């Protein structure tokens, strides 16, 4: 290659590298609300990782207390896809979601400003069901059996730790509870013969805690009695007394009456009319009449099933159940519902709707997860780490410059110029691959600086040997590069193979180290073999092979 083309190629390499390191606005396809759209985004090169920017580190495990899982490795693999989808839509820059071992998921969120929200999003099961409320009065009929089941276990160890039930509410409180909802919103289902003028069903320990609501299958429990009733419901004998084909669900909201707070409890058909498996999209919005809502869309098969099922239950109440909790009050089915629907969140803020829409779009977790470890890394630690890393890199670079110029003189100066281009090219390569800079990555970069001059050392020593044998300067330079090339290739290929193995089998910081090392090896090959030799050719052209080489 002629000298002119060599110089043009080096200048082009410098220009492209400099361009890659400048922030810029680009137009690209991005994923918003589960759909890819064309949008303008700010592209920032060399994003900082968790250890430099600060953020949150989470370790997730399967919650065995909620569900026993035989094959944990397979369950974690399936849960990993859901968690990764949720985090990708969460809006965190450069998150890390990966499997650790056979039963853990590691989530790293750099720059996160709401840790609690992030923990809620990754843990939420998001299992969506639509279930019809009971209209047969099955719970009232089963109350004697439930009271008997609690009474029979009252003196045994099965009720150990269960608080004594609160006293029955006063008549004024019972009657006031009837007015929590207007008659317009509490429409009576066709064929419903359940008596609605009784606020409470008196009797044993179980029934004393239950206040009958305004719609079929709806009951209210004082907030301070909820824990007691939940303990009752966890007993096998009480579970066996629940009407067959029915299930008890708690509301996600509470209702206040004066100084007292109540939580709704619903008896629902155990068989859901449809689940969230058919959901394709969910979007948060705010309605002036209904407050915060999440509008959802089902696929064609889901819409067909939903339409068929809801057409059979016109006039009935349908509970929208998310993770075993009833979202808001069950609405009345006034007509067949197709692919479009909505979940009303009442007085909750828009962020709650955004998070709910996010987890619904990502899908439900195949197994329940719990947070086993959480670490918050503050920005001060990241700033200290960046300062220390830059200081270490500057010291290493200065030592390399001093040693090369002091030992190899003019030739060492050419190597330093090549090292400057090497540094620019390495950083540009990392930016081009959208790499995230971490502390191990910085360590790999500092290490690659030393490796970058190794090739120059091999070439310079070989040139010295050729000059000592009485050869001309031009011939010595040519022979030095030619004979040193096999050793340079062998050493760099060996290092590259090691870095490739680290990248393939490593995780997190190890992969960051490997990526930086690979980029450094590639850049050092180019600068040592091509750039520095071009500098020698320029020098030889100007001196016409008459001046002795300083090496």
Give the domain tally: 3
Structural class call reads alpha+beta
Q: Report the sheet-strand fraction.
A: 15-25%
Distance between the termini: 25 Å
Continuous helix count: 14
Please describe the biggest sheet, giving its number of strands, its sense, and whether it closes into a barrel: 8 strands, mixed
User: Outline, from the CA principal axes?
Assistant: elongated
Structure summary, number of beta strands:
19
How do the strands line up in the largest sheet? Answer: 8-9-11-10-16-15-7-12
The level of helicity is 40-55%
Rg from alpha-carbon coordinates: 35 Å
- State mean pLDDT (0 to 100 scale): 79
- Poorly predicted regions are 30-36, 155-202
Q: Would you write up a description of this structure?
A:
- With 551 residues, this protein is of the alpha+beta class.
- It has three domains: 3-22 and 378-543, Multidrug efflux transporter AcrB transmembrane domain (Multidrug efflux transporter AcrB transmembrane fold); 55-120 and 365-377, 2-Layer Sandwich (Alpha-Beta Plaits), CATH 3.30.70.3400; 126-356, no CATH class.
- The chain has 14 helices and 19 strands.
- Helix 1 (3-20) runs antiparallel to helix 14, helix 3 packs across helix 10 (350-362) and helix 11 (379-432) packs across helix 12.
- The two termini are 25 Å apart.
């Amino acid at each position: 290659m002629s000298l002119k083309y060599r110089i043009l190629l080096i200048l082009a390499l410098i220009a492209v590298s400099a361009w890659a390191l400048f922030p810029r606005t680009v137009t690209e396809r991005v994923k918003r609300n589960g759909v890819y759209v064309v949008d303008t985004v700010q592209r920032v090169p060399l994003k900082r990782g968790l250890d430099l920017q600060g953020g949150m580190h989470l370790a997730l495990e399967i919650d065995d207390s909620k569900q026993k899982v035989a094959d944990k490795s397979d369950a974690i693999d399936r849960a990993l896809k859901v968690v990764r989808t949720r985090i990708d839509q969460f809006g965190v820059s450069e998150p890390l979601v990966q499997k650790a071992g056979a039963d853990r998921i590691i989530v790293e969120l750099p720059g996160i400003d709401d840790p609690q929200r992030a923990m809620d999003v990754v843990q939420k099961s998001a299992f969506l069901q639509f279930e019809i409320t009971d209209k047969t009065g099955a719970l009232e009929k089963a109350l004697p059996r439930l009271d008997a089941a609690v009474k029979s276990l009252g003196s045994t160890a099965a009720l150990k730790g269960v608080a004594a039930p609160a006293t029955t509410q006063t008549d004024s409180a019972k009657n006031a509870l009837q007015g929590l909802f207007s008659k317009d919103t509490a429409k009576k289902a066709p064929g419903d013969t359940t008596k609605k003028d009784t606020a409470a069903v008196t009797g044993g320990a179980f029934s004393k805690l239950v206040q009958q609501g305004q719609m079929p299958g709806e009951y209210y429990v004082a907030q301070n009695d909820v824990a007691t009733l939940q303990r009752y419901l966890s007993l096998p004998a009480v579970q066996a007394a629940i009407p067959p084909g029915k299930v008890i669900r708690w509301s996600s909201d509470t209702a206040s009456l004066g100084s007292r707070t109540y939580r709704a409890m619903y008896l629902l058909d155990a068989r859901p009319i449809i689940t969230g498996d058919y959901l394709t999209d969910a979007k948060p919005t705010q309605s002036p009449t209904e407050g915060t809502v999440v509008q959802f869309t089902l696929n064609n098969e889901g819409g067909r099933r939903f339409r068929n099922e809801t057409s059979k239950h016109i006039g009935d109440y349908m509970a929208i159940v998310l993770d075993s909790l009833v979202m808001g009050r069950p609405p009345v089915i006034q007509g067949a519902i197709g692919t479009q629907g909505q979940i009303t969140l009442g007085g909750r803020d828009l962020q709650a709707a955004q998070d709910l829409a996010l987890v619904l779009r990502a899908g439900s977790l195949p197994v329940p997860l719990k947070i086993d470890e959480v670490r918050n890394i503050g920005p001060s630690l990241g700033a200290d780490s960046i300062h220390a890393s830059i200081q270490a890199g500057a010291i290493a670079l200065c030592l390399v410059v001093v040693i090369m110029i002091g030992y190899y003189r003019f030739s060492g100066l050419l190597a330093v110029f090549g090292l400057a281009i090497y540094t620019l090219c390495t950083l540009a390569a990392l930016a081009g691959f959208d790499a995230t800079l971490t502390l191990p990555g910085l360590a790999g970069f500092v290490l690659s600086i030393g490796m970058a001059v190794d090739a120059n050392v091999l070439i310079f020593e070989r040139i010295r040997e050729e000059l000592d044998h009485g050869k001309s300067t031009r011939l010595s330079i040519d022979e030095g590069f030619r004979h040193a090339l096999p050793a340079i290739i062998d050493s760099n290929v060996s290092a590259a193979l090691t870095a490739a193995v680290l990248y393939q089998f490593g995780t997190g910081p190890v992969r960051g180290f490997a990526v930086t090392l690979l980029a450094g090896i590639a850049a050092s090959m180019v600068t040592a073999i091509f750039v520095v030799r071009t500098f020698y050719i320029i020098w030889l052209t100007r001196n016409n092979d008459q001046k002795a080489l300083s090496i």
